[in-house]
Specification:
- By secondary structure, the chain is an alpha/beta fold.
- It has one domain: NAD(P)-binding Rossmann-like Domain (Rossmann fold).
- The chain is built from 12 helices and 15 strands.
- The strands form 4 sheets. A 9-stranded mixed beta sheet has the order 1-13-9-7-6-2-3-4-5, with helices on both faces.
- Helix 1 crosses helix 7, helix 3 packs parallel to helix 4 and helix 8 packs across helix 12.
- It is globular.
Length: 320
């Protein structure tokens, strides 16, 4: 787990890289990043392919167009139903689990059928593995917690085991809260704070383990090429922040007041079971990336917020 036998990052060359979830928050930033380095990127889509860079797959049915995946050297598997997109009904919780397990199983089965298997599978995962940690720092050596999200992550990661057994280097990218205006938790937070309606959630003492979107993309790229890294890897900044610290940084960067706290009972009424994740504390440390020598562009939450705002302005000017 973590760092394998010592090895350096290999010289970069143009590779064929397949990506699931390419239209999501992370995937839509990762694709142009990799193409800028002259890699050939193919996107797996859940409809008939209409472009040369598309490969059709159906994770529910367990099917993939293997022809389009031939020659792939790396796969980044990011697809899965959004954890915070809907209220956690029993049906949606089943969708969260099935989308991850079925999708991972479909990808792994397909990779094992290729004439030549890819060198690496970067399989999406989440810091939900650790559950509630309070003030305690946790890293990749800590066991899984119990509870819905921890159970989902445990099943999700285990589904990729056959790829490792087939000789593919498997990395479980346990992503934290991605700071971006385009999607995820922060996409909901920015409008509220910009109107002066933001405030700490509950006590504000809970830790949020975050990462800026550019650092998330750079970390995934790093994991593709760094042959010494395998197993679970926390994709978070090395400086988790409390919700109160996040709130203060949002107010400072945006120049807005942050005087309206959201009481715990109100969050539970609005978010249901998902409120336990918002109010919970996860102080997650990216020990594997630190030991591997990865460097972050944003090491403070204020820096990550500024980066998100600048990126959104750039995308708006570019018409994206």
């Amino acid at each position: 787990m973590g760092l394998a036998s010592p090895g350096a990052v290999r010289d970069a060359w143009a590779m064929k890289i397949a990506i699931t979830g390419a239209s999501g928050l992370i995937g839509s930033a990762l694709v142009p990043h990799l193409r800028a380095q002259e890699h050939e990127v193919v996107r797996l889509v859940r409809r008939p392919a209409t472009a040369p860079d598309e490969v059709t797959w159906d994770p529910a049915a367990g099917t993939v167009d293997l022809t389009g995946l031939q020659g792939t050297e790396a796969v980044v598997h990011l697809a899965g139903a959004g954890v915070g997109d809907h209220r956690w009904t029993d049906n949606y919780k089943r969708q969260i689990l099935d989308s991850r397990v079925d999708g991972t199983r479909t990808i792994v089965t397909a990779l094992r059928k290729l004439d030549v298997a890819p060198k690496v599978l970067i399989s999406g995962s989440a810091i939900g593995w650790y559950g509630e940690t309070g003030d305690r720092r946790v890293d990749e050596t800590d066991p899984a917690d119990t509870g819905f999200l921890a159970d989902v992550v445990r099943a999700w990661e285990a589904t990729a085991d056959p790829a490792e057994q087939a000789g593919i280097r498997v990395v479980h990218a346990r992503t934290g809260l991605v700071v971006a205006k385009e999607g995820g938790a922060w996409a909901r937070m920015f409008p509220l704070f910009q109107r002066g309606l933001g405030g700490k959630l509950g006590s504000g003492r809970q830790y949020w383990s975050w990462i800026s979107l550019p650092d998330e993309v750079r970390a995934l790229d790093y994991l593709i090429t760094n042959e010494s890294v395998t197993g679970p890897v926390n994709l978070t900044a090395p400086t988790p922040a409390t919700n109160a610290e996040v709130t203060a940084a949002m107010g400072q960067v945006l120049g807005r007041p942050t005087l309206l706290p959201a009481p715990a009972f109100a969050l539970k009424a609005v978010l249901g079971e998902f409120s336990t994740e918002v109010l919970g504390s996860a102080r997650v440390i990216p020990a594997v990336l630190e030991r591997a020598g990865f460097t972050w562009g944003d090491t403070t939450i204020a820096s990550a917020i500024r980066t998100a705002l600048e990126s959104a302005k750039h995308n708006q000017r570019a018409g994206r």
